[in-house]
Amino acid sequence: MAQPNHDPTAGDVLGAYLRSQATAFLRGLRVHEESGSDAAESSEAARGLRGAARRIAGSLSTFRVVTESAWADSLRTELVWLSSTLADEHAYAARLSRLMEALQRLSASPEVPAPRGNAASAGALTVGSARAGALLERQLTLARTRAHSATLQALGSSRFHAVADAVAVLASEVPLDAVAARGRVEDVLVPLAAVTEDRLGSAVAALPDTGASTPYSAHADGSWHEVRRLLRVHRYAREALGADVSRLAAAGEALDVHRDASEAATASATAARTPRIAPATAYALGVLHADQRHAALAARLSFHHIWHPVPTPS
């Protein structure tokens, strides 16, 4: 704790942030355990758990030298495992919902291109969309069920209970490096946060050209996903310092949409490779795939406009 009339040290600031996130984690865990059959409440609690776990893990990575490094490395590894496990079930459910909504929207659109040799595009899409939707629902519901089982198994494991115990300790006491934690925030935390900003800047600079006339390329998805990851780590570092992260949050939302659309496009392409599907079903899945690729490209442009705003004329 900072002494009265003294500026907070690096340990004070980092410790306060980590304790607040540990408390949020434990709150989400309690709500998740008490939610029972309330799917919406359980999902929201799991979301809170994931967010707190990511923030703690990101901070332990960025500000590792301010903590007891061996402890930080171990807890970060476990929190990354937990966050990833909890995310899978939500991701499959959200992907299915996104694809069903897109199919419904496209079926009602007069602007969908007609299949070869057929002038009635909307009609052809309507014929295939029901079967395409059923196919996607089977595939993604199966994946979601498996992810749900993995989540339940993880939450009941001794590994998870060890993580929860470690976070409970973190909520009251943060293991800090005796020397680095006593340093000034400007001398210790700010330069460490600047490292995450530099990494993010390099990753953004390495992205392929983005413009209204640039075609979408799935080969670049990995680079965009990496920018999303680095942006999230940088945002958490700025949060820990009490900075305004509204621009970073907006950019992150654009990259979330990109990730969701690109993975939905992949899911529709995977479904289209199912053996012996009807031509109308394949057509509907092809239209859906193109629609999600277009959404991913739009999200790339949205990120570009947020990150490189056009100066307003004076």
Describe this structure in words.
The chain has one domain (10-112, 125-304): Alpha solenoid (CHAD domain). The protein is built from 9 helices and no strands. It has helices at 10-34, 39-62, 69-107, 121-155, 158-170, 189-205, 221-240, 246-272, 279-307. Helix 1 (10-34) runs antiparallel to helix 2, helix 3 runs antiparallel to helix 4 and helix 6 runs antiparallel to helix 7 (221-240). The termini are far apart.
Mean pLDDT: 92
* CATH architecture identity: Alpha solenoid
Low-pLDDT segments, ≥5 res: none
The number of helical runs is 9
From the alpha carbons, calculate the radius of gyration and give it in angstroms. 23 Å
Secondary-structure-based class equals mainly alpha
CATH superfamily: CHAD domain
Tally of DSSP β-strands: 0
- CATH fold group: CHAD domain
How far is the N terminus from the C terminus? 48 Å
General form? globular
CATH class division? Mainly Alpha
Protein name: CHAD domain protein
Organism: Streptomyces lavendulae subsp. lavendulae
